[in-house]
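Weekly modeling sync, notes
Attendees: AB, CL, MP (scribe)

Item 1: holo prediction request
CL wants a bound-state model with AHG before deciding which constructs to order. AB pointed out that an apo prediction alone won't tell us much about the pocket. Agreed to run with the ligand included and paste results into these notes for async review.

Input as submitted:
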Amino acid sequence: MAQIGTDLNRFILEEERKYPQATGSLSLALTAIETATKIIGSHIRQAGLVDILGKTGKLNVQGEEVQKLDELANEIMIEHLLDSGEFFALSSEEMEEPIFSEKGKNGKYIISFDPLDGSSNIDVNVSIGTIFSIHKKVTGTIEDFFQEGYKQVAAGYIVYGSSTMLVYSTGKGVNGFTLDPSVGMFLLSHPNMKMPEKGKIYSINEANAKKWIDDGLVDFVESLKEKGYTSRYIGSMVADVHRTLIKGGIFAYPADKKNTNGKLRLLYEASPMAFLITQAGGLATTGKEEILNIKAKSIHQRVPVFLGSKTEIQELLSYIA
Ligand code: AHG
Ligand code: MN
Ligand code: MN
């Protein structure tokens, strides 16, 4: 196992060396994500200062308009991902249609991402994140985005929290890296992350309980309360899933009368998180099928999401399936 403190770039290269046939493409692809998200992170850290510095003229010397952070994050991701030349196509929460890039025409991968997740939390200084999901290019058409989640080559997220962490998997376990801001490097802090078999926390927007569609969900949540579970709900999927990955328990965004397929998007929220949770020993379901087995039908498709420790997900299924 790699040593605590190993720099992410070295870790990626060492992983690559284990596969003599590897060409280095995936390493370059992951490095592009790392660079983009470091830049996004630095903008996020300035978020509260933008108006103040703008007034003193310090930040807007080029006379640039202050952009919404989710649009800015999207642009930064696109710029770095395209520049790497490793991605044949990109799809993002912030774009109606995918981008097929000239520079990536020989790229082996396609990527879906949520450039800024939990953006309603920006103004109140609460953790937000970036999520990504990488598949192989197969047909070279939009169909490549509709592959099942279990076919992901890599998936991960960055949580911009009290510290910034990058957590990712290439299908051989999950590793977490913490940004050391003094040197600007992600250092291995959470090697081979494994979820507890059972937790003590449930995470769901209970304000929607009266609108939930799944019969049995209310009873399931009641049963957790009776067993002494506590509730945590940040409202940033990245942060809620990060906690669930470390502490166990369950995170859910079920279908309700307003969001009949749930709120979260399959390609760049549900599927990458399901990949990580499963790699860490947990389970991920819509209540009807495993999230990783779904073949998407459209880029922005939504699915109900239940992610968590084995015990809670199996218990949930006994109530709703
Ligand atoms: P985004 O900011 O990318 O649009 O995602 C918001 C999502 C997700 O992060 C979170 O789990 C969910 O919205 C919270 O929704 P509710 O406020 O409806 O609970
Ligand atoms: Mn999101
Ligand atoms: Mn978003």
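Recorded for review: The helical segments are 8-17, 25-45, 50-56, 69-84, 217-226, 237-247, 266-279, 310-320.
Action items: CL to compare against the apo run; MP to circulate these notes.
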